[in-house]
Structures are given as C-alpha cells and as structure tokens.
C-alpha cells in the first residue's frame, strides 16, 4: 500500500472524522460566527479567534503562538480574506505540530530488538487506562504479537476484574494477584511470565489513585525498579493516559505526572464525547512528549495511532 493510501485509509479516517465530530462542529460554529459580516482578517477577527481557540481547550500558550503566526501573515498581507482563515489556521497548526517529533506511525508497532517490549501505563483514576490497555492488546494481537497483561492496579478489586474482562475479550493472558497485594510483585511476575512465554509485548496497568499523591509516585518508582530485575531496560515506554474531555485538567495532570516520573508517550482518550478536541493540539505543543494514541470511543477498535496530519485534516474538514 502506498504511504498516502495507508495514512488516509478510508475506514480509519471515517472513525476519526466521526470521533472528532463534536469538536469540529463546535469549532466551526464558533469560527463562522467570528468572521460573520467580515471579509478580511482584522484585529476583531483575531480577538475572536483567540477566544475560540482558548475555549476549544487549545490552551493559552499554544493559542498565543498560533495567533502570533497569523498576525505575522496578516501584517504581510493586509487584505487577507476571512475565507482563507480556515486554510491558514490549518497550515499553522499543522506546522506547529510538526515541530515536535511525534513520528508519523500509522500502525501499531513496537521495536523489534526489545523483547518483551514493556509498556507501563499510568494516569489518574478514570481517565481510561484499563480501556486503552485492552484496545492496545487487541491491536498488537491483531498485528501478530504475543501480548501479556499485568494487573498491577491492586488498589481496587474491580480494577483487576476490569483488566480480566479485557484479557478475556481480547483472548490475551493476564498475570494477577489478589487485591491489596504489592503492585511491584505483580509487575515482576508478569515480566517473568512474559519472558517464559517468549512474549513480544507486556502491558502493565497501574493504580490511578492511592491514599495520596506521594504514595502513588513512590509506588510507580518501585514498580519500575523491580521490573528492571527481569528486563534491565524495562519499562521501554511509560504511557501517560489523559482524559481529553477534561480539557485544562488534562494539562494539569500531564504537568504533575511528568514532574514526578519519566513519561515517554501520551494517550489522549474520550475525544469522541467532547468538544474539547483542541486539547490534543495544546498538549502536543506544550509537552515535549509525543501524543502516541488517541481514544475515540469505548469499543475495542476505538484507539488510533495519533497522526498529526490526519488529525488536523479531520479537525478542519
Ligand atoms: N467515550 C469514550 N469512553 C472511554 C474512552 N476510553 C475510556 N472510556 C471510558 O472511560 C471509563 C473509565 O475507563 P477505565 O479504562 O476504567 O479508566 P481507568 O483509568 O482504568 O480508571 P481506574 O481503573 O479507576 O483508575 C470507562 O467507562 C471507559 O469505557 C474513549 O476513548 N471514549
Ligand atoms: Mg483501571
């Protein structure tokens, strides 16, 4: 398949378009109101645009960056028409996202020389960690990989049950202990088991809530340390899951987690049920960590590898 065909695979594109429906509708409604009765981009239009971007949860810093760039273009072309604003915005946002190297993977891939490849999934409670793990297990398995899940969220009995449900649904083995057991010990067992089975990918679920934040961060550190006893360079990836529908809260969580523990990639979930899709643009720009996956629904197939070009394309369609 050609590169472009792969990028714009029809089916994938349709889910993304549909998933971002709410964000788009709200964004374009506001945008058309902002330029109503105007035929050129003037200060008024720019002020309105700033408001729209901020209210779409792009975030203040990223919004200012975008407005600066558009002002630049306006100063070069005083008669820049409002009919062109859409195109220009799209170009500037795509340009902004291209500045961080988030790669442009279109498939669910893992490095071949790391076996098992260990992904530790972190994030506060309710953001969609377990669901994202289930979706990832499904995709990796579909790609022919041998997957093992580790139920290291031992804080709640239901957390273990929920991961078990995804293990059954995707027909992937799970390693678990009883509620309240040591998460690091579960992670250790999972890696051992994965090594014995010659598995390709290990995905470790972790608790999103403990008695307090310090406890949680200490626990994550301990889980990491213990995993290294089995696989010295594990975890290969620390995936922070953020709920896109919480807008500015997601920024706040990203700030706190990245300050407390090393995060290598981001997954932004629940973009289907929200008008806050702009949060992906802001988060990509503000954190030097690539958004790797986006969640656009509760189903097994509702996870996509984040592709900035495709995303901007969907957002502005
Ligand atoms: N609409 C939608 N719902 C999602 C998405 N991802 C997760 N959810 C839902 O969000 C809720 C919480 O998801 P979980 O996967 O249990 O979240 P968690 O981070 O594991 O939560 P804890 O185990 O409590 O820490 C569930 O009802 C999921 O179905 C998504 O991309 N879109
Ligand atoms: Mg969970």
UniProtKB/TrEMBL annotation:
Keywords: Cell membrane, Cytoplasm, GTP-binding, Hydrolase, Membrane, Nucleotide-binding, Receptor. Belongs to the GTP-binding SRP family. FtsY subfamily. It holds the Pfam family SRP54. GTP binds at residues 123-130, 205-209, 269-272. It is found in: Cell membrane; Cytoplasm. This is Signal recognition particle receptor FtsY. SUPFAM superfamilies: Domain of the SRP/SRP receptor G-proteins, P-loop containing nucleoside triphosphate hydrolases. Gene3D superfamilies: P-loop containing nucleotide triphosphate hydrolases, Signal recognition particle SRP54, nucleotide-binding domain. The keyword Transcription regulation does not apply. Its main location: membrane. Its EC number is 3.6.5.4.
